[in-house]
């Protein structure tokens, strides 16, 4: 075998190993969906616990009013929760809009914290830490500033965590509110359903593992106090705090019946900036937690560490290597005897990709349509390939942050 053959075999094995892991997650996630579809959410026994909902917001005037109004309309007892909006160094009309809502609802526990360039403007984690100092709830819920949760969302999260003392946090599902705005948002909607909801469900079903998604989740106040708040260096503060909760001995559960709707990027430029930020943030978390692979007390979360490590490093390198070798082989610069086999496996991978996602779409009302088949195929050859660029650019930016010791700041996602 030539060196090209060896490299191609290694790349193909790595790609297919991760592909089969994701197939297993989809199957397990579908089984979890069938199970939860026929189950009722637990009831809250006794007095409802007091909950603090925190909403970190930076220049969110376009969406913040709708978000706060939806939080005020939750079916949770109004005297048993407070809403803290951290209006973090905003330069738009957010302050005026929030004051207007507050004046219309003087009887409600709606707290507005306005920070300036000195105290705020340093990222979501810093804003959450500021909000936490004013909170009173024994449970802490987080919603992003573009979210409109369904009326039952909070009650379902509270019911789950109050009925199981082993749970440190409970996460819900988020859906794409503007899915029909563009072809890109249709791609994001499919990605959210398949790689967010179904993968979370599969990991919970197989390993009792989940990752906090950054919005529509609830956690115990005692946990935040024990870990000293959110890591201000972490852009992906949701993933980072998930690992710390697991290291405390708690579990995280996924409750798909708790649903929030969020706005997604409608242009490639905005999407690319958002996703490279996510990639950079997750790479920070991976590097920070690699030592846990050799820690016996972290045995339960080794799958997640290896999973993220494989996605952001092993898969990226394998995809780039295999694609490059196939292109060079076609151009006659290198020779590989397994190019035909690689092409066959590539075709088979596409089939598995399409079937897996289509099965996922059958779990959501309004998503089951044969017309989605061409969207999925188009997504594979365009949207999914851009992921390699996103991951590589995220890694590049992470290394720049390390070298130049840059502090975290707000990376504003444009709203519509």
Describe the overall structure:
With 416 residues, the protein is an alpha/beta fold. It has one domain: Spore Coat Polysaccharide Biosynthesis Protein SpsA, Chain A. It has helices at residues 3-37, 64-72, 94-104, 124-132, 153-162, 183-207, 221-227, 237-247, 268-289, 302-331, 339-361, 372-381, 383-404, and strands at residues 51-57, 81-88, 110-115, 139-142, 147-149, 167-176, 217-220, 251-262. The protein has an eight-stranded mixed beta sheet, with helices on both faces. Helix 1 (3-37) runs parallel beside helix 11, helix 9 (268-289) crosses helix 10 (302-331) and helix 9 (268-289) crosses helix 13. The longest helix is centred in the first third of the chain and has 35 residues, at 3-37. It holds the Pfam family Glyco_tranf_2_3. InterPro entries: Nucleotide-diphossugar_trans. This is Glycosyl transferase family 2.
Could you please say which CATH topology applies here? Answer: Spore Coat Polysaccharide Biosynthesis Protein SpsA, Chain A
Succession of helices and strands: HEHEHEHEEHEHEHHEHHHHH
What is the total number of structural domains? 1
What is the level 1 CATH name? Alpha Beta
CATH level-four homologous superfamily name = Spore Coat Polysaccharide Biosynthesis Protein SpsA, Chain A
Query: Stretches where pLDDT falls below 50 for ≥5 residues?
Result: none
Describe the sheet with the most strands. 8 strands, mixed
**Helix/strand class:** alpha/beta
Principal-axis shape equals: globular
- Lateral arrangement of strands in the main beta sheet: 3-2-1-4-7-6-8-5
Residues in helix, %:
40-55%
Q: How many E-type strands?
A: 8
Report strand %.
5-15%
Oligomer: single chain
Mean pLDDT: 90
End-to-end CA span: 55 Å
Number of helices: 13
Transmembrane segments: 6-33, 305-331, 343-361, 373-396
Pfam family, one: Glyco_tranf_2_3
Family: Belongs to the glycosyltransferase 2 family.
GO molecular function: glycosyltransferase activity
């Amino acid at each position: 075998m030539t060196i090209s053959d060896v490299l191609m075999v290694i790349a193909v094995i790595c790609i297919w190993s991760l592909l089969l892991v994701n197939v297993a997650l989809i199957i397990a996630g579908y089984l979890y969906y069938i199970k939860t579809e026929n189950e009722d959410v637990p009831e809250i026994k006794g007095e409802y616990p007091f909950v603090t909902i925190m909403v970190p917001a930076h220049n969110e005037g376009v969406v913040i009013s709708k978000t706060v109004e939806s939080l005020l309309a939750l079916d949770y007892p109004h005297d048993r929760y407070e809403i803290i909006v951290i209006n973090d160094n905003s330069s738009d009309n957010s302050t005026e809009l929030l004051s207007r809502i507050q004046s219309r609802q003087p009887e409600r526990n709606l707290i507005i914290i306005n920070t300036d360039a000195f105290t705020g403007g340093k990222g979501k984690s810093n804003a959450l830490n500021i909000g936490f100092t004013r909170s009173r709830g024994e449970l802490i819920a987080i919603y992003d500033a573009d979210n409109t949760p369904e009326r039952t969302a909070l009650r379902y999260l509270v019911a789950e965590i109050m009925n199981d003392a082993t749970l440190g946090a409970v996460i819900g599902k988020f859906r794409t509110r503007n899915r029909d705005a563009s072809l890109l948002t249709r791609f994001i909607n499919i990605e959210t359903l398949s790689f967010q909801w179904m993968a979370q469900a599969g990991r919970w079903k197989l390993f009792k593992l989940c990752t906090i998604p950054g919005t529509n989740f609830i956690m115990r106040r005692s946990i935040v106090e024990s870990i000293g708040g959110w890591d201000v260096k972490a852009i992906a503060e949701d993933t980072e705090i998930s690992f710390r909760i697991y290291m405390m001995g708690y579990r995280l559960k996924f409750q798909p019946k708790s649903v929030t709707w969020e706005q997604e990027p409608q242009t490639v430029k905005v999407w690319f900036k958002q996703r490279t930020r996510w990639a950079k943030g997750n790479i920070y978390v991976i590097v920070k937690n690699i030592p846990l692979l050799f820690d016996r007390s972290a045995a339960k979360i080794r799958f997640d560490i290896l999973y993220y490590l494989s996605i952001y490093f092993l898969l990226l390198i394998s995809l780039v290597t295999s694609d490059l070798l196939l292109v060079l082989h076609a151009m006659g610069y290198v020779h590989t005897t397994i190019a035909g086999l690689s092409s066959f496996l590539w075709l088979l991978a596409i089939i598995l990709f399409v079937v897996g996602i289509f099965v996922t779409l059958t779990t959501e009302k309004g998503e089951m349509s044969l017309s989605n088949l061409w969207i999925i195929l188009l997504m594979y050859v365009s949207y999914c390939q851009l992921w390699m660029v996103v991951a590589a650019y995220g890694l590049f930016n992470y290394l720049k942050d390390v070298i130049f010791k840059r502090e975290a700041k707000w990376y504003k996602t444009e709203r519509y």
